[in-house]
Amino acid sequence: MVSVNQLTLDFGTFLLFEDVSFLINPRDRIGLVGKNGAGKTTLLKVIKGLQEPTAGEVTMPRDFTVGYLPQVMKHDDRFSVFEETEQAFSDIKRLEKEIEQLTEAINHREDYHSEEYLSFIDKLTEANERFNMVGGHDYKSRIEVTLKGLGFKPSDFERSTSEFSGGWRMRIELAKILLRKPDLFLLDEPTNHLDIESITWLEDFLKSYSGAVVLISHDKAFLDNVTNRTIEISLGKIYDYKASYSEFVKLREERREQQMAAYRNQQKKIEDTEQFIERFRYKATKAVQVQSRIKQLEKLDRIEVDEFDNSKLNIKFPPAPHSGKIVVSGKNVSKAYGDLLVLDQIDFNIERGEKVAFVGKNGEGKTTLARIILQELQHQGEAKLGHKVKIGYFAQDQAERLDDKLTVFETVDKVATGDVRTKIRDLLGAFLFRGEEVDKKVSVLSGGERTRLAMVLLLLEPVNFLVLDEPTNHLDMRSKDILKKALNSFEGTVLVVSHDREFLDGLVERILEFKDKNIREHLGGIYEFLEKKRMDTLHELNKPVAQSTTKNGDATEKTKGQNGKVAFAERKELNKSIKKAENAVQSAEKEIASLESELEKLSVELENPDKAADPEFFGAYQKAQKDLEEKMEEWESAHLELEELEGKRAAMDNQ
């Protein structure tokens, strides 16, 4: 249990939060919410011990472990992906080294009866026991499963981390934290650089995790799927609800309505009482009643209504100039980075007024095609903009592209032209940069503030084609809803690259999925796409290849018959493979049980100094240990193969 006690944090004249207290219980799944700048990230840093509060304290049990994933991190690029992820098991690696050194030392000694030799034996036995207890035999397979779940391919494991983008390196850090299995996860925007499939995997992991989780996210669907408790930071105070985010929004509104009703009733009672006092103050016959009413007012516990932060963005895109019917089209578009082919001869087109989403795993070419459309990248094939198309572009790293040396006002003033220059302060005010805030340096802005400022630059001149690459990464819930509403009312064409399901839902009506160097069109909303994609994936596993029709077009029945024979043969062969894998798993399990029993007996005998001093006996003990390790690896391999084969059979059964 973690106790947050009366925390106060102020920066000079600015009070971030005051007298904040709450408990984090085992198995809590807490969503930390609030507008950008409310203090969410700072609160995580205080809990982690990276920032000292002005007053109050955070207490937790001794040996309690905390895993923290910040929004921005420094990366060490000396290792491969697998080696870097292995850092999560530094204790196991040290134990491995210790066991290796002790074994080496024992093998070179012949003073079998000396105290020093027996001391080495005791240390080795203890080290091996600890190694077994902390899962030293299977940590590499756990690394593989976690990296695959976060979207890495086996071929990526030996690549240097320096070859990956910041988003992929963030996944490596996330993998390390997940593998350490801390008592408490503190996750600051973990989904910002994840694709939809990896988000789904992370949701499942966190839901079944045995420890506690506190996370900041602006992904409503992610919060709803993971959290069971919501803590809101608003105007320096916290409001704690035992509910997921969507339930919290309803409960917060109900609570405020109840407070307002009680407040209005009390105010009416106070007004009536004051009128009575004023009316009969000077009448002797009513003196007792007047004094009684005055005492009632003095003792009255005045109802306070929770302050509500009503500040919000006011986004409205300028009217879109008319463009041709075809906004952008592509034919045989290909793009490679060196030997890495990303897009292979794809065709596409986007028409005027459409709202289209690019979705798919990271690295499949979504941003690449967006930049080809913007004519920022050289490529093969033809990608052509339509008649009178004028683009407004928000890059994935747009907020990071801002000049840190400029102020908020100077950033906009540098780009604005014409009449817009006279309305810069009004425009910034609509994006919550008011008064002295326009003179802030960009370098001190939070991630959300940078995103808002970058969004201002989109509104400086009318466009008819908006290309938005991950525009919601640092926007809070209300800001995302307002942006979504503004895009829905925008009369031009919208192309959005996003992994945010809730943001895309109700915004786009056409989805282009990037997979295997190509794109595939899906009509409908994002949740229809996700459901269909799940079914398609099951359908396509082990799908037999149909024979092409003859010139006369009469090969249909022949093809069906052949496909039936192929399917039957495949199923028969698959069942044989499954039976073989099951036998391998069972055989390995029996041998492991036998070896563990043997090793347990040898460990007991090893406590006898005479036995410990016998080189032959000690050699047998080491051999049993090695045999057990090899058999464990054999079992893991067979078990993984069996799971894969059973998955194929399940897919075939669903056809």
Automatic annotation (TrEMBL):
Keywords: ATP-binding, Coiled coil, Nucleotide-binding, Repeat, Transferase. One of its GO terms (molecular function) is transferase activity. Residues 545-564 are annotated as: Disordered. Residues 85-112, 571-648 form a coiled coil. Residues 2-260, 328-541 form the ABC transporter domain. SMART domains: AAA (SM00382). Belongs to the ABC transporter superfamily. ABCF family. YbiT subfamily. This is Probable ATP-binding protein YbiT. It comes from Marinilabilia rubra.
